[in-house]
Amino acid sequence: MKVELVKYSEKHIPSLLELLNNENVSDWLMNVPHPYTEKDAKEWIEITREMEDGKDYGYAIELDGVHIGGIGMNVKGRALPGLDDHKAEIGYWLGEPYWGKGYMSDAMKQLMKLAFEDLGLVRLYAHTHEGNTASEKLLLRHGFEHEGLLKKSFKKGDRVFNANLFAKVI
């Protein structure tokens, strides 16, 4: 069953609250607080509205009209156009009830098509929390390569942690 990437809207607030208030999900996400509040959800929807500038893309992942996760990318080069606008950082998450069913793989294929075919990018990269093997396996399945370990590179709350850097270059 194919998932659909759609723009976020207010209809996604209840599912954002339900899915992201699960620590099994939010603990792996670098910029998602716990608990995740209605204010957080509304701010996220507003941020995704501002992403329509051709540099940022943020989508809700839906399965038969049901919101199950999110995926997006930030095309670099905003500060110095022409210098690094050939690449994008990607991020993604999936609600726990939908893990292991191939839905994120389908969403990743759609995002990669947008990046490489439609936008003409040549590099996609992602950071994963050290130990997030499911995310690492997803990236490897889609042709990403492990480029290194970034020691103490991210902070969430009071915790500083390592991240792995993966990239796909065409």
Roughly how many Å is the radius of gyration?
Answer: 15 Å
What amount of the residues lies in strands?
35-45%
CATH fold descriptor: Aminopeptidase
| Largest sheet: number of strands, sense, barrel closure | 7 strands, mixed
| Percent of residues in helices | 25-40%
Mean pLDDT: 93
Query: What is the helix tally?
Result: 5
Oligomer: single chain
CATH first level: Alpha Beta
CATH homologous superfamily assignment? Gcn5-related N-acetyltransferase (GNAT)
Number of strands: 7
Number of discrete domains: 1
**Shape, principal axes of CA atoms:** globular
Order of helix and strand elements from N to C terminus: EHHHEEEHEHEE
Structural class: alpha+beta
Kindly report how far apart the N and C termini lie: 28 Å
